């Protein structure tokens, strides 16, 4: 019984890593599609998101079965419940990448974003990809330095998000209103992606240390 | 033991209803603060959100303890795991109301929103309040007609959200770029609030019927 249980936990852990890797790829390709108005790539991102959703369902079913069949206690129990939370965050990251791809499709054949903002968003997308990759590595290694790195990457993301609004408020901003809407939503999606990565990082930290720092949430 | 378990389930159910009620009040007051540039009311909403977060933590701890101590199976197990999901959705609805209050504070003493859009947002906010109140009632009664009503309310919310972008794209739209950003984010917050209400409605439906309709997710 114990052996089966360890195999279940292992499998859940691997599925989380797989989700994080797929989410990193999704953001990479979603950003690429948006920057280049590549509608075919956008379609692929949208299709791939269904796979991420499927992975989440599979993981959640396994976690619930494990709870039912193995009746885990203490740290194992928290690990499994934590996995349900982490899979929800990762699934949401996939949705946010999909939103970017949907924007590509909506504005095609035009580029959705004005060129003056593309540099900032490109940096934000790169930070998002780094965060998702770091989440995969953190889940694999449980090295808490990576969790701290993720929080630091997210601070940089937040600063860039704030700078977008400074740019939009500047007199030099000449984009029309629908483009301004696209810019604000894109910035919001890119920023939220990082927040979900931080949620996973905090959850892993909590599972490893048993300590939850609410001031850091 | 069985009695204790039923009491735990009852308590978790009541805490979910309490969260839904608090979230309905939060949206009501957040919208009021935004429409009237009432910064004191905004502060109260922001402070009250900490209580909603606290309720979520308390509920989650209880759910995890119940899993550990009672080792529930089958429908009871799914009910408790479902509660963890529902508490996360309700907590997020509280966050979205808080975002509106934060916008009030950020733009004070000005009103954040231009008058021509206020009517649409007021309707969206009323739908959000209705959705949150319906969620509380659904959790209490398990009457699945209410779940269907929530989905219908959310369709109306989505249509209003879409109409905001039509308004912003119109030549008659004269608001400056920062205001256009505020308008797009406000619309997004109001729309997401309803989505989370729908998530709870679907979860309750699933728990009652045992059937999950992925086409409806």
From TrEMBL, chains A, B:
Plays a role in the regulation of phosphate uptake. It holds the Pfam family PhoU. It comes from the Bacteria. Residues 16-103, 122-204 form the PhoU domain. Keywords: Cytoplasm, Phosphate transport, Transport. This is Phosphate-specific transport system accessory protein PhoU. One of its GO terms (cellular component) is cytoplasm. It is found in: Cytoplasm. GO terms for biological process: intracellular phosphate ion homeostasis; negative regulation of phosphate metabolic process; phosphate ion transport. SUPFAM superfamilies: PhoU-like. NCBIfam families: phoU_full (TIGR02135). Homodimer. Belongs to the PhoU family.
């Amino acid at each position: 019984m114990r052996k089966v249980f360890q195999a279940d936990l292992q499998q859940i852990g691997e599925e989380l890593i797989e989700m994080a890797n797929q989410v990193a790829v999704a953001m990479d390709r979603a950003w690429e599609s948006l920057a280049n108005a590549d509608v075919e790539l956008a379609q692929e991102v949208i299709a791939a998101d269904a796979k991420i959703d499927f992975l989440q369902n599979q993981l959640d079913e396994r976690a619930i079965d494990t709870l039912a069949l193995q009746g885990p206690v203490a740290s194992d129990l928290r690990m499994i419940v934590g996995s349900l939370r982490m899979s929800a965050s990762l699934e949401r990251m996939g949705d946010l990448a999909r939103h970017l791809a949907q924007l590509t499709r909506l504005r095609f054949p035009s580029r959705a974003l004005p060129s003056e903002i593309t540099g900032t968003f490109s940096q934000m997308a790169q930070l998002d990809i780094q965060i998702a990759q770091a989440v995969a590595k953190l889940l694999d290694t449980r090295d808490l330095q990576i969790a701290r790195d993720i929080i630091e990457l997210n601070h940089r993301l937040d600063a860039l998000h704030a700078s977008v609004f400074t740019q939009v408020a500047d007199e030099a901003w000449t984009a029309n209103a629908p483009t301004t809407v696209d810019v604000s939503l894109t910035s919001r999606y890119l920023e939220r992606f990082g927040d979900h990565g931080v949620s996973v990082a905090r959850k892993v930290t909590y599972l490893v240390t048993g300590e939850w720092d609410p001031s850091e949430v």
